[in-house]
Amino acid sequence: MSIDEGPGPMLSRRLGYLLKHAQQRMQELNTEALAPFGIDGRELGILLVIAGHEPDSQQQAARRLGIDRTSMVARLDALEDKGLVSRHPHATDRRRNVVELTATGRETVTRAGAASERAEAALLSSLSPRDADRFRDALQAIVLPEPEPVSRSRRAAAPARSAAGSSRTGGPPGRARSG
Q1: How many whole angstroms from its chain centre is CA 126?
Q2: Are residues 104 and 146 in the same domain?
Q3: N or C: which end of the chain has fewer CB within 10 A?
Q4: The pTM is what?
C-alpha cells in the first residue's frame, strides 16, 4: 500500500499508528504460526518465562510478565488443561505454587518458539538483517527497564555498535545506560 492509498502522510508517520499496525501484523503472523501447537502468543510468552526461570512460583511469573495474579491463574489453568505446565505447592512455603513445564510443555516451547521466530522473521523481512537488529534493539530500549545481556551470537557485533556511537552494549546510539 502506498501512502496515497493509505492514511496519508500525516498519520503514516505517527508512531502510534505504525506500532499498532506492526503489532497487528505480528499478531496475525504469530497466530498462524502457533495454531498447530494449540497455543496463542500470550500462552507462548508465559511458557517462555517459565522455561527461563523454572521452577518458579506463579506469582513470580506473573510479575515478570506484568500480569495480575487473577489473570495469571486463569492462563495457567488453561496451560495446565493442555498438559503444558504443572503446579504444585512449594516445598517449604505451601502458600506458593511452583509452576513447571511438563515434557510436552518443553517440546512445545522449542517447536512453537521456532515457529514464532519464523513469524518474526517474516514481519522483518522487508528490513536488512542489520536494520532488523537495530529495530529490535530500539524497541528493547523503549520497552525494557534495563537492557538484556548481549547474546553470544551478537557479541561480535557489539564493538562495532559501540564504535558507531552506542553508549551501551547492544543498544541504539544516543541512549545512555542508567545506573
Answers
A1: 20
A2: no
A3: C
A4: 0.72
Alpha-carbon distance 31 to 39, whole Å? 8
Going from the C-alpha of 42 to that of each of 48, 75, 80, 110, the distances in angstroms are: 10, 9, 14, 16
pLDDT average, residue stretch 2-20: 79
Evaluate if residue 157 carries a pLDDT over 90. Answer: no
Say if residue 120 is in the same domain as residue 138. no
Q: What is the pLDDT of residue 6?
A: 75
Is 110 exposed, middle or buried, given 0-12, 13-18 or 19+ CB atoms closer than 10 A? exposed
Q: Are residues 82 and 161 in the same domain?
A: no
Same domain, 120 and 37: yes
In which band, very low, low, confident or very high, does the pLDDT at 35 lie, cut at 50, 70 and 90?
very high
Range of the domain at 138: 129-174
What sign has the CA pseudo-torsion 124, 130, 145, 105? positive
Q: What is the mean pLDDT of residues 94-101?
A: 86
What is the number of domains present in the chain? 2
Q: Which of 83, 88, 81 is nearest to 103 (CA)?
A: 83
